[in-house]
Amino acid sequence: MASWRGHLTFSTGLGVAFTALSWWQFHVDWPVAAVGGLLTALGGLLPDLDSDSGVPMRELTHLSATVVPIILLRRIASFGLSPEQALLAVAGCYLFVRYVLTAIFNKVTVHRGMFHSVPAMLIAGLLVFLGLDHPTLESRLFFSVGVMLGFLSHLVLDEICSVDINGVVPQLKSSAGTAVKFWSPSLPATAFTYIILAGLGYEAYRETQGMESVKWPTAVASGTPDKTGPASPTALPPETKKTLGFPERPMFKGRLFERSKDGKKSEGMTLSIPGFNN
Prior knowledge:
Elements: H1 4-25, H2 30-43, H3 55-71, H4 73-78, H5 83-108, H6 118-131, H7 137-161, E1 163-164, E2 171-172, H8 187-208, H9 238-241, E3 257-259, E4 269-271
Antiparallel strand pairs: 1-2, 3-4
Helix pairs in contact: 1-2, 1-7, 2-7, 3-5, 6-7, 6-8
């Protein structure tokens, strides 16, 4: 199997490529594309969470406990908590993942078990999909695909390294077929994994009902509101039409700051974001 350093190097390179491709070809705003690349790099390390000890387990435990509260920030903020309460919620989430969830995970998993499988990859993507309380479906799918892409790269790299090419005829090692799989020799573990996958899949389907897709901002290229309603795709500038669809940061050439009508000095500059100030 590939080493921890090998998986880290490969997933990091894949994350950089995912970020660059998203920004260059799909015109995803660079901070969003960078987060997608970061999740891709992290996804390439996730399968080693079932390691019993050593560097992978220690590093991933701390990393997961840090990343999970960050992913849940939107949901925490949606509860209407005060800043102090939100801080306590984030700290509680970190402690729960770091000590409680990790201990349970170590008890119920074995190395190269069902956590090294395609259903586990789908579970990781669904968890990110449900954890990120983003208003648009495209944004959730973008981050979920990044995590699953990194997760799959770990499985594929393990399978590649299970082929012994030192001899005249390549031979399979004993670890062949233990990474990219859909079931394991343990029937309870396989059944439990698919039950979790079905439950998360149903919850994701339920949340997508009524979820808004990408909407065209009610503005034109100059940054002035369109009084007739939502702008049609043909009325928008080319760079907007090619955007993957993250309406929180629309791409417009209009001025970002405009002077308010009252003409005040310090309060006269207001943040004008097309499509949000209408």
